[in-house]
Amino acid sequence: MTAPATPLEMLEAVCAVARPRVLVVHAHPDDETVQTGGLMASLARNTHLILATCTRGEAGEIVPGILPEGFTETEYVAKREHELAEACSALGIQERYFLGMPPARAGRLLRRDYRDSGMRWVREGLAGPADGTDPRTFTSAQLEEEVADLLALIRATSPDVILGYDREGSYGHPDHIRAHELAAAAASAADLPLVEIASADEAPEFSWFDLSSRKAEAVAALGCHATQLRVVNQEIVHVGGQHQRLPLRSGLRLVH
Prior knowledge:
single chain, 21% strand, globular, 7-stranded mixed beta sheet, 3-stranded antiparallel beta sheet, alpha/beta, 256 residues, Rossmann fold
């Protein structure tokens, strides 16, 4: 295809639909903003965005002072769910669902909350699997079950295209890599176009888009995720001290 000028032009060409319905698959609350805030805000103006979040970020570190001393995991999860709702509103995301909860749950199965699998730093900028196993986590579950859940959501929401991570999962978090596998398998099963988001800066096989015009929305959404980060001097400062540029440039490519 001719090099698209905007992400919207690319998605419209990919699925031959004006104002497409776009299903976006992310691993945790805050990923929709940290990884793709500018992209989501841009697409929300001219598409119908449907967000599938795979976990509730239970293993995430917490910025001190945001929650009262002695808080429970239930309170933490509720806070992260609230942060996600506020961020989606700031970005203009029209629909949001958690994988494992109807309508993103297969058949008549009981609700399942896929838990954050956790991670450890392999080296600067690259994450790997955490030590230990918990059968409740997203990566411990059977991929087939998760695909069935996402297909249930696809049937309920009728997207025209699926948008997800590339195989590197942005920075290697095991949940991001599983989210990539999930999106790819569901897109293939549903015969839908899959568009991947680049992990590596300026990867040549991707079309790159400047999204700085959506800075205000991206920064507002980042501010909603107070348990996880701060915005300081035009950078994201994560709870672990890592610095990241604002998400105002995205690379996309059609896989199938």
